[in-house]
Specification:
By secondary structure, this protein is α+β, with helices and mostly antiparallel strands. Helix content is 51%, strand content 19%. It has four domains: 20-50 and 298-306 and 320-403, no CATH class; 58-255, no CATH class; 425-527 and 713-835, no CATH class; 529-706, no CATH class. The radius of gyration is 33 Å and the shape is elongated. Its main location: membrane. One of its GO terms (molecular function) is transmembrane transporter activity. Keywords: Cell membrane, Membrane, Transmembrane, Transmembrane helix.
Length: 846
């Protein structure tokens, strides 16, 4: 142990420059893993914020989770998904809760969209305001149907407001102004129940306990009372999907208020989990390659130690201590930077609107030590990489330790097997859809990058056979570069690997989303045939579409409302619940405003109880006109719909087109729909625009309507996570590329000094180094692009039916970063070329 400690101490001082690159790689690894660990911990502990029900001890609400079970490998497996539309409960729940001992007050709550002065608002019964609690600032509570209370000082007492609810405009008198958001409007309980449109159903029941009552005990009594009364959710759910009413307490109360928060939390965890393996593998690969390269340039020194009698155990222990000293300082430094990196990711998610309102990413004190755990993992990884780096030399007999060894056949076989596994995973991506295809493509890219790292010497040898002739055209410097690259394929392979890594990883992450967006935009432009669009907050007035169709110059009008459905099915033997964006439309003359590219059937037959299906989805489900498909709406209710048509342009319109009435029936707070208007060829568009404004008072007429495009709810989240991961891993990998190339350049100083003594000129050597760097960059970019293209081609053909697409600006950035990074590795060797003759030749190059 004393010998190993002495060797480690001397080697650390003698090779400070080499260990500086390793220190940087380990620091960034610890930082990246720590930030990623904090983000995962924060997403795991996230919960919806409690606002409207902050004054309630308990909240009784519907179960906002749907479940699907299927047999998988002989066992029954169940998956679940959050519901983004309100699951309502029967009014009988209010009676059952009020009879429970310890309940001081039970308040019924309903919520519905309201249009007010061109803005969207929310209507609720005044009794529910006490659950926040929101108190009156001025005025009094509403007592008659025509009276309202506004929030946040949005209107003065005595003012008259015209509110649009359910497509109808009604005048109300403001009798009070209360605390709370300015978008809130409170009605009497009876008027709110009438306007909500479901008098026998409630959104939730807020419970205020008697003083001194334990909320936990009260929740148990309320649960028993609801079960005894047989209270279940409203609507028909699928078999195996229980409809039990929930009793929420503490932080769970926010789940009844912010419906999109819980599903977004699951989607955030899924998005982070989908890239977790890739991030960890990239970090391990970069750290291992950097440490191995630092030890490889000292292979003769380690061989000499074996030749003079050092045992394999002493050699491993010395190298392990040496790397451990560096890692012991680097890992805590990276852990300290993990917190700012995590806060930066949080800011990115907020800036891009990737998280819904109400979802709070918390970080309990119990999870604060996460970066210390990842720092310990970084130290262990460094130790393992050190043992791998010196294992070859340690195993050799002393007489053989000084000889240069070529890579063996075992390494070649391992690389070929990994390459085959990656290609097979890409083939799997071509046969799948959705998240399964994306995960298979990402796994294929990482596996193929590792295969290229293992096959690096042979890739470099093959590249030099192709590039050798062009390099020799550049005179003596070119011939030197060609000879050096051909003779040092092992070294060139180590330099190519990080370039392949950054090119392939960034290409897959960026091009995957860009391909889908590009294809969706192209289809959305092809789908839209309308010239104008009519939109109104709070919904279009009743009969608006019919009045629009009667306007002179209007050829057709279609109302389009966005929404979501869930598709339950077995994928590769495992149950899966997939959330899909859809549109509800009115079918009359639909193809004159929208062109879905009908393949079979007739969209004019689209009525309540029917559905049109995208061609790819129809093929996967075996659906055709006349058959049926089973879907779950956003509120969890299941329905069987008869297929009336299939269409081609599903990237823009989603996989299902439904009747507007069917979709709105299961939408708690409908998004603002719009009517797409196609004008006659000879119509005066300005005159038609004015006539439409008169026909639909309070509506806005858009002269250049935006294309119709269905976006998945998690798309913004996935894009934000992708940008963050590419930025973090890309920057980390660039540093690793620079470190690896700098290590290689530093290890070549003796070789360059020897060439100078042999008569090579400084200009010739500079040209040689530049050409070698250019050959390295070209080979790395070509191989990286090839590695990325295999999974991307499979993914894009499966998901978009097009070739992969990467925006030119992003492609130029990737190439520029690689070129500049490779150029940054040249300065370490410039001092060797200064002066007329080199001063000395150091065996270590330091």
């Amino acid at each position: 142990m004393k010998v190993a400690a002495l060797l480690a101490a001397r080697a650390t001082r003698a090779h400070r420059k080499a260990w500086t690159a390793v220190f940087a790689a380990l620091t960034l690894t610890s930082l990246l893993l720590g930030a990623f660990g904090l983000t995962l911990a924060s997403a795991w502990s996230a919960h919806p914020r409690v606002e409207r029900y902050a004054g309630a001890d308990l909240v009784v609400a519907g179960d906002q989770t749907t479940r699907f079970s299927a047999a998988s490998l002989g066992d029954r497996e169940t998956v679940s998904a959050g519901l983004t539309e309100r699951v309502r409960i029967p009014r009988t729940a209010l009676t059952a809760v009020r009879a429970v001992p310890g309940v001081r007050t039970a308040v019924a709550d309903v919520e519905f969209p309201v249009g007010r002065a061109g803005r969207s608002a929310t209507g609720r019964p005044w009794e529910a305001a006490r659950l926040a609690p929101y108190a009156l600032r001025t005025g009094r509570a509403p007592q008659r149907a025509g009276e309202v209370v506004t929030g946040g000082g949005a209107g003065g007492v005595g003012a008259r407001l015209t509110l649009r609810v359910g497509g109808r405009d009604t005048a109300y008198t403001v009798v009070g102004v209360a605390e709370g958001p300015g978008s809130a409007v409170w009605f009497t309980g009876a008027e709110a129940s009438r306007l909500a449109g479901h008098p026998e159903a409630l959104d939730a029941v807020g419970v205020v306990a008697d003083p001194g009552t334990d909320p936990g005990e009260l929740a148990g009594r309320v649960r028993k009372a609801l079960d005894a009364a047989g209270v279940t959710d409203v609507g028909h759910r699928a078999d195996g999907d229980p409809a039990a009413v929930r009793v929420l307490a503490g932080g769970e109360r926010g789940e009844a208020e912010f419906l999109a928060a819980a599903p977004a939390r699951d989607e955030l965890l899924a998005a982070l989990g989908s890239v977790a393996g890739a991030v960890v593998l990239v970090a391990l690969l970069v750290v291992s390659s950097t440490i191995v390269q630092a030890l490889r340039q000292r292979s003769h020194e380690l061989g000499l130690l074996r030749a003079v009698g050092a045992t394999p155990g002493q050699l491993r222990c010395a190298v392990g201590r040496e790397v451990g000293r560096v890692a012991a300082w680097a890992a805590p430094a990276g852990a300290a930077g993990a917190v700012p990196a995590y806060l930066g990711l949080r800011a990115l998610l907020d800036a891009r609107g990737a998280l819904p309102d109400g979802l709070e990413l918390t970080l309990p004190p119990l999870l604060w030590p996460a970066p210390l755990v990842t720092a310990a993992v970084t130290v262990l990884v460094a130790g393992a990489a050190a043992l791998i780096g010196c294992s070859g030399t340690a195993k050799l007999r002393p007489a053989e330790a000084l000889r240069e060894r070529a890579p063996g056949s075992a390494r070649r076989i391992t690389g070929l097997v990994l390459l085959f596994v990656g290609a097979s995973s890409a083939g799997t991506a071509a046969l799948q859809q959705g998240a399964t295809a994306a995960a298979a493509a990402g796994g294929a890219a990482v596996t193929m990058v590792i295969a290229c790292a293992v096959l690096g010497p042979w890739i470099a040898e093959g590249a030099m056979r192709l590039l050798g002739a062009p390099l020799r055209l550049f005179g003596p410097g070119g011939r030197l570069a060609a000879a050096n690259c051909a003779a040092s394929a092992h070294r060139l392979g180590a330099a190519i690997t990080p370039i392949v890594l950054v090119t392939a990883f960034a290409g897959v992450q960026l091009a995957g989303g860009a391909t889908m967006t590009h294809a969706q935009d192209a289809q959305a432009r092809q789908v839209l045939r309308a010239d104008l669009a009519v939109r109104a907050d709070g919904g279009l007035p009743a009969g608006a579409v019919e009045r629009i169709r009667q306007v002179p110059g209007v050829r057709a009008a279609t109302e389009v409302v966005p929404g979501t459905v869930l598709l339950a099915r077995s994928q590769l033997g495992a149950p899966e619940l997939e959330r899909l964006p859809v549109f509800g439309v009115t079918p009359e003359r639909l193809t004159r405003t929208l062109d879905p590219g009908v393949r079979d059937g007739d969209l004019a037959r689209l009525r309540p109880g029917t559905v049109a299906v995208g061609a790819d989805r129809a093929d996967s489900l075996g659906a055709r006109p006349g058959s049926t498909v089973t879907l779950r709406f956003g509120d969890g209710q299941e329905t069987r719909l008869r297929v009336v048509a299939t269409y081609q342009r599903s990237l823009a319109l989603g996989d299902f087109l439904l009747s507007r009435e069917d979709l709105l029936r299961h939408t708690s707070l409908p998004a603002t729909g719009r009517a797409l208007v196609a004008t006659a060829p000879d119509a005066d568009r300005k005159a038609v625009t004015k006539a439409l404004a008169r026909a639909v008072p309070g509506a806005r007429v858009e002269r250049d309507p935006a294309p119709v495009r269905g976006e998945a709810a998690e798309q913004a989240l996935a894009e934000a996570v992708s940008v963050a991961v590419v930025g973090a891993v890309g920057g980390f990998t660039v540093i690793a590329v620079l470190s690896t190339l700098a290590l290689i350049a530093t290890g070549r100083r003796p070789e360059l000094r020897l060439l100078r003594l042999a008569g090579a000129g400084r200009r010739q050597l500079r040209r040689m180094l530049r050409l070698e760097a250019a050959a390295t960059v070209v080979t790395g970019l070509v191989v990286g692009a090839a590695v990325a293209s295999v999974p991307l081609l499979a993914f894009s053909l499966a998901m978009a039916g097009t070739l992969p697409y990467l925006p030119p600006v992003q492609a130029a950035v990737i190439v520029s970063v690689v070129v500049l990074t490779a150029a940054g590795s040249l300065p370490p060797v410039w001092p060797t070329l200064r002066g007329r003759y080199p001063r000395h030749v150091s065996p270590s190059g330091d």
